[in-house]
Design a protein that fits this description.
By secondary structure, this protein is of the alpha/beta class. It contains 17 helices and 15 strands. The chain binds iron/sulfur cluster.
């Protein structure tokens, strides 16, 4: 079912069509794949079904090569009368796990879809287990259920579950907290840039070590590295932090605007930030020239999947010369996306939510050069002669910052270049 709503009176912003219907997006459990790489001494115990175990094993088997730091506790078919057994079973699994793995510093109990799991109160279970295993590690719970979460919302739920554990800041000294999982290499680059701007009080949340929890309080300024963190932001605001409105650090303009917004809180002018970062900006501009040739004038269509769609569309249009046919996103948080909507402007068709059939009908009628979508939708579209890009790849690849700009553009250029080679091949 589709309903057109002009979500804003501001003629400079895109109007938004809201759609509700069937969606085809991975569940929040998928976020464990990148979260467990980032928080290196954390363990994710999924309380779920065999389907959940299969999802993790197949996704992880394809995408990572690391010692597993996640597992699935499969609870059998039980009715409500068996709830005490469920809790006992969970306690037993956790005790065995912690005995075997003394290196674990943070345990996440991750909820899923089966009704017997939904009946379990995992937050309470986490609090009870924290009491038993006091001091040794921290235990929290979040939902990765496909009923409640998409794959990027899994990260939001995970980080929000950690916010109560963040220590209270001892005073109101201004500190910056960068929120959202990024690759280690991007964190290093960003730390260097912040140092160039004279901002040394910077924390990254989540950090690579589970014990490395940033302090939070009225002096905390939060800036988002990822746009899908609505619940985490709400939890941090309740702890007294202040949100910096900024674009996302994707592309040269997005990254520059992101640093300018952060530095403004430290009293630095936009122009002085541009001057301080002139070398990485020039390097990024140079690296983008070649990739841009493959994207210029080509059309792109975003199906709703990752919540990264709006900043990516802005980058691909403004810095790579692509034409946007439609930009759909599963959820649109107007506050977290304010700066990006402003930059996107009124001429773009934005859709919030998903109604798979009508979304696919529009792709077929536009026949864009490239469609960004979930893995399940890509194959049928490819079979119809349409080129696709899996949006989940954008989460697994370092794409933020100046030094990643060409790699980011390259992710979209590759299917188009491959197609051209095939065309040339078939005529030679
Ligand atoms: Fe498990 Fe539900 Fe995700 Fe399926 S959708 S893998 S049942 S959490």
């Amino acid at each position: 079912m589709s309903q057109v709503i002009a979500r804003t009176d501001n003629a400079a912003l895109p109007s938004v069509t809201v759609e509700r219907g069937e969606r085809a997006v991975f569940c929040g459990l998928t976020s464990i794949i990148w979260l467990h790489r980032r928080i290196q001494d954390a363990f994710f115990l999924v309380v779920g079904s065999r389907t959940c175990a299969h999802l993790l094993q197949s996704a992880a088997g394809v995408m990572i090569f690391a010692e597993p730091r996640f597992a699935t506790a499969i609870l059998g078919e039980r009715d409500l009368a068996g709830m005490a057994d469920c809790h006992e079973e969970l306690d037993r699994v956790v005790s065995e796990l912690l005995e075997r793995r003394p290196d674990i510093r943070r345990l996440f109990l991750v909820g899923s879809c089966p009704s017997e799991v939904i009946k379990l109160d995992l937050a309470n279970a986490a609090a009870r287990l924290q009491g038993v295993h006091d001091n040794r590690l921290r235990i929290s719970a979040f939902s990765g259920s496909g009923i409640e979460t998409t794959f990027t919302q899994g990260e939001d739920q995970c980080l929000a579950s950690m916010v109560p554990d963040l220590p209270e800041a001892p005073d109101a000294t201004q500190r910056l907290m960068v929120v959202g999982t990024m690759a280690d290499i991007v964190e290093e680059q960003f730390r260097r840039h912040f140092a160039q701007l004279g901002i040394s009080e910077v924390d990254f949340f989540p950090a690579a070590r589970a014990d490395d929890l940033p302090v939070v309080g009225p002096g905390t300024r939060i800036i988002l590295a990822q746009p899908y963190l609505s619940d985490t932001v709400s939890a941090l605001l309740k702890r007294g932090a202040k949100l910096i409105t900024a674009p996302y650090p994707l592309g040269i303009e997005g990254t520059l605007g992101w640093f300018q917004a952060a530095a403004a809180e430290w009293g630095r002018s936009a122009e002085s930030v541009r001057e301080a970062l002139v070398i990485p900006i020039a390097r990024a501009e140079k690296s983008l020239v070649k990739v841009r040739e493959s994207l210029l004038g080509r059309s792109i269509h975003f199906l709703p999947d990752s919540q990264l769609e709006i900043p990516l569309a802005r980058f691909l249009r403004d810095e790579c010369g692509m034409l946007l046919t439609e930009v759909a996103t599963p959820y649109l948080d107007q506050t977290l996306m304010a700066e990006e909507l402003q930059r996107l402007g009124a001429d773009v068709s934005v859709v919030e939510g998903s109604d798979l059939d009508s979304a696919l009908a529009r792709v077929r009628s536009h026949r864009p050069d490239l469609t960004v979508c979930g893995m399940g939708i890509a194959n049928p579209l490819e079979a119809e002669g349409l080129r696709t890009k899996w949006s989940i790849e954008l989460i697994f690849t370092p794409i933020q910052g100046f030094d990643q700009v060409a790699d980011l553009a390259g992710l979209f250029a590759r299917p188009l270049v491959r197609e051209r080679k095939l065309e040339v091949g078939s005529w030679s």
